[in-house]
Amino acid sequence: MFTSTKKRIICASIISIVLMALVALDYKAFFDIEGSYGVALFVCAMLLCLLFGAVLAVKFNFNEKWEKRYAMIYLFAGPFVTLTLVECLGNNFVYDFSPIAFISNYLVYLLLYGVFYAFTNRIGIAGIIVSVILTVFGLVNHFVLNFRGTPFVPLDFLGIGTAANVAKNYDFTPTCQMVISGLMLAVMILLGVRVKYKNKVKRKAAMRSVYTLATFAAVIFVFYGTPFLSSLNITANLWNQLSGYQQQGSVVSFWLNTKTLFVNQPAEYSAEKVEEIANQTTDTVEKTEAGESAGQSGKKPNIIAIMNETWSDLSVVGNGFEASEDPLPFYHSLTENTIKGNLYVSIYGNGTSNSEFEFLTGNTLAFLPSGCNAYEQYIREETSSLVSTLAEQGYSRTAVHPYFGNGWNRDTVYPLLGFEHFYDIDYFSQNNLMRRYVSDSDNYKKVIELFENRNEEEPFFLFNVTMQNHGGYDTQYYNFPETVTLPGDTEGKYPKTQQYLSLMKETDKAFEELVEYFSNVDEPTIIVMFGDHQAKIEQEFYEDVLFGGKSISDLSIEENQQRYITPFVIWANYDIEEQYIDKISANYLSSLVLETAGLEMTPYNKYLTSLYEELPVINAVGYIDKNGTYYDYKDDSQYSSMLEDYKILQYNNMFDKTDKQDDVFSLGGAKTPFDAALNFPKLCAFNFSRTFA
């Protein structure tokens, strides 16, 4: 069955020794790793060199029966080996996978083997092709991980030109992962070449190919056309791609990301059309002089924008509810120098950064693929925003988030939006946490500290994303006594809801402290605060209490929209016109802030201000017109052309790399000052080994 010759053994031995010597020359790649981990990898590399030599030294003399058996072993074992080498390049190991993650990865690899087998009728050739292609993918992912700290995602294909330009600045010295994976690939190729079996009966071979390709087509349909994988919790981890790739595998995670890849160019799109749409509204929106809004001082007001994690007012949802006390008494009491109301966002329960994307840019998730994350996938270069508009008017720009800076890719995105500084969790004390997060009260103390140490020659802008109310309400915490309960039969029935409402009370108290501080500040200052999404509490609370026993799946579009309402408030320490706004979506809020502050607005802001008058709500769920009529995007309406115009402007703003109309998205056509993106201080943490909530 196995034969050899002296000459074959000598040649194989020489090749093995040469391979071992090459590995030994690269010993630093292994022994620079802390602990015994590097030693184990070095031993594995040496064993792979010996295995390659051993396979090369012998000749396989199988009869027809054993040829088929060997081919089947290669077919079913090969995907596991290929999976192992690809994950090794991603600094990951398959034994860390959950059972469902391992099975899904293995089946994907096996399916790829089957598809190429269907075309070639040679199992060995199929295995070699798949292994080489996926090894190349693994290498690309390996380099992207090393250079950028985040994995390779489908949209990175758009940046291949830039990557080629900067590649010479990086070190391509082989790592231990590259060495081991390369040796595994060499063994796979050598074993694949030895597979001689092929189906000699053409009819059977053809039928097998048909079955395989039909299976592949069915998998594609299930993947793109049904929520089956989501029901198994197999989804792209858009919050932290690195964590997703480690938990669910590189190839599967990459494939999952393709579901949020496609953004089609709008019909009748052109750069000229962008200018035409913008010019229609530029002259219809009057701007207020800054001095009139900021009182007698004539100074541009300081602006503090707070996106409060999971801040919502559930009393406006459905039939409302009763609690032992009002969780938001201060917010409800605010009237003087206050604009407040209901903000319609595009997400429910998670996806925080998508709400800040809508607020900061004026763009909407309604025109982006369902399930996408704008920060992770679409902001890859300098992007016009509220931040850049304020930069053009002389504002300092600071971002604050008391959690890990690389979550949602913020440490990369913020300088591209125009921020100068970013303070993350490393700049907060961990000695006085609420549950396991920095409290809003401590968070605002940092905001005040940064304000007091600002450059007083510049108006101050700060954007703060809080963390106190982050989801996970099913654990009782010794450092957080719950103070708000539900009455009667509902008391204790919804523990997540009660903990969440108690957190809302703490948020309200902290906000009151912040407003009290700035009430005594002489400089004109505006504070805008809004919630990113409602809480992921018991679904039964929504169904049984808020919607009177109606299933979530049976809600009307109007009822469903209520699950996407959060509060917003704009408060000033000087006179502004009080207002209650029942309906406004997050994409309009930054334009409202600019208008309230009496600052210059870009043509895009003016366009949004005009559009708001007709369609005060545009979010991923649907849209609402000025008469309070609710619409679904699948239905045509009298507003379809308005939505198409908005889509054209947003497409130009986000995706047109050659004909972006900068004068529409900046002030006076001036170049947006993005010096911050070039010299962004590394104030945020870069420890990618952390586990994210």
Could you walk me through the main structural features you see in this protein, from its secondary elements to its overall organization?
The chain is an alpha/beta fold and 693 residues long. Helix content is 48%, strand content 9%. It has 28 helices and 13 strands. The strands form three sheets. It has an eight-stranded mixed β-sheet, sandwiched between helices. A three-stranded antiparallel β-sheet has the order 11-12-13, with no helix packed on it. The chain has a two-stranded antiparallel sheet with strand order 1-2. Strand 11 and strand 12 (623-624) form a beta hairpin. Helix 4 packs antiparallel against helix 8 (176-193) and helix 13 (271-282) packs across helix 26. It is elongated and about 95 Å long. The protein starts with a strand and ends in a 15-residue tail after the last helix. Mean pLDDT is 86; it is low at 286-293 and 681-693.
Give me a quick take on this structure:
48% of the residues lie in helices and 9% in strands. The chain has 693 residues and is an alpha/beta fold.
Key features of this structure:
single chain; 693 residues; 8-stranded mixed beta sheet; 3-stranded antiparallel beta sheet; 48% helix; elongated; disordered C terminus
Shape: elongated
- Taking Cα atoms only, what radius of gyration do you get, to the nearest Å? 29 Å
Q: For the largest sheet, list the strands in their spatial order.
A: 6-5-7-3-8-9-4-10
**Approximately how much helix is present in the residues?**
40-55%
> Quick one: biggest sheet?
8 strands, mixed
The unreliable regions are: 286-293, 681-693
Structure annotation, total helices? 28
Distance between the termini: 55 Å
Overall structural class, as computed from helix and strand content, comes to alpha/beta
| Rounded mean pLDDT score | 86
Strand content: 5-15%
How many strand units? 13
